[in-house]
Amino acid sequence: MSKGAKIENHPCAGEDHQLPLFEFDAEIKALAHQPTADEIARAEESPFSRHIVYVDESGDHNLQSIDQSYPIFVLAFCVFHKRHYSEAIVPALEKFKFNHFGHDQVVLHENEIRRRKGLFNIFQSGERQQAFMDELTKIIEFSNFILISATIDKRSLSKQGASDNAYHIALGLCMETLYEFLQEKGEHEKKTHIVVECRGTKEDNELELEFRRLCDGNNRMGISLPFEILFADKKVMSSGLQLADLVARPIGLKTLRPEQENRAFEVLKKKFYCDGGREEVGNGYEGIGMKIFPTPKSEKPR
After folding, report:
1. Rounded distance, CA 139 to CA 177, Å?
2. What is the rounded distance in angstroms from the CA atom of residue 291 to the CA atom of residue 285?
């Protein structure tokens, strides 16, 4: 390719050229549930937890500015086991891009996909667009991650005269829930990295300050939290950040219009951290893995 050549966008022409997304699914799942003695020993000695967290948000964090069509702010934590993430999720997402674009130099953004903007204005028919969305939903469904979210109802806080930052309120709620999850896994004393997307120098500095404050013990539990924040550029091709970008808005829409059909949320509700562990996926997540603040009167705070 000549210097400066542009990468063209061509949707896949036929099924014969499709890369199977999960061809090693059974093998990966078998390996994930049968770690060797050496792997267990190394994991126990490592200062890092076996999980990594990718974060994204939906809505405006400013409590003084309220869009009546979307008067909420949602923060979502996607918690991945590092082995499953690196051996199954990243390859599946890469092959998904190869299948639909012919290359992997594409950053998946929910807003652009929904509005068919930029690179996502390539579909020649509604059927092709639907096939794209169905396959992307399949990847999310296949992805074995734990979902933790906090939705801030800006209308209620505005009536109370609150002047805090919605992002900061949601961050505290999600970090506390994350600690509870890691405590269950016996990893609450190991360092866990939390990856967020850069939003601007001022916002990032304020967020890092609030993050450090929460980690230093200024949280509901009154304990130090062994978390470290990482800021990623918006153009970075992180599979975890791209998946996190796809989950926040469906959670917000479910909160705003609970009776409206929401296919994406039906997939996501089985991911939420909940009471009862794996035996109760899809149940008992409200107020636990999926929090709303202020707490609705019909929901008892945990």
Report:
1. 25
2. 8
Name 146's bridge partners. 79
pLDDT digits (tens, 9 = 90+) for 90-122: 999 999 999 888 999 999 988 888 888 888 887
Q: Are 122 and 30 in contact (CB under 8 A)?
A: no
- 298 in helix, strand or coil? coil
- Region for 65 from its dihedrals, namely left if φ exceeds 0, alpha if ψ lies in -120 to 50, beta otherwise: beta
Question: 72-81 and 145-153 as β-strands: parallel, antiparallel, unpaired?
Answer: antiparallel
Return the domain boundaries, the chain: 54-193+240-293
> Residue 152's closest CA among 162, 141, 137, 138?
162
d(CA 149, CA 143) in angstroms, rounded, equals 17
Q: What is the mean pLDDT of residues 140-148?
A: 94
CB atoms within 10 A of CB 243: 23
DSSP lists the bridge partners of residue 301 as none
Other residues' Cβ atoms within 10 Å of the Cβ of residue 46: 11
Amino acid 227 reads F
